[in-house]
Amino acid sequence: MPLVRHPRPPPHEVHPRRRIQFHPDLIEVNGIAKIPDDLAGFIVGAVERKKLLTGKSVQPGDTLIALPSAGLHTNGYSLARKLVFEVARLKPDTYVAEVGNKIGAELLKPHLCYAPALKNIVARGWVSALAHITGGGIPGNLPRVLPSGVKAEIDLASWAVPAIFKYLAKLGKIDTGELLQSFNVGVGMILVVPPKNVRSVEADLKKHREKFFLIGRVERGESGKARVTYTGTLQM
Question: With helix as H, strand as E and coil as C, how does the chain read?
Answer without folding.
Answer: CCCEECCCCCCECCCCCEEECCCCCCEECCCCCCCCCCCCCCCCCEEEHHHCCCCCCCCCCCEEEEEECCCCCCCCHHHHHHHHHHHCCCCCCCEECCCCEEHHHHHCCCCCCCHHHHHHHHHCCCCCEEEECCCCHHHHHHHHHCCCCEEEEEEHHHCECCHHHHHHHHHHCCCHHHHHHHCCCCEEEEEEECHHHHHHHHHHHHHCCCCCEEEEEEEECCCCCCCEEEECCCEC
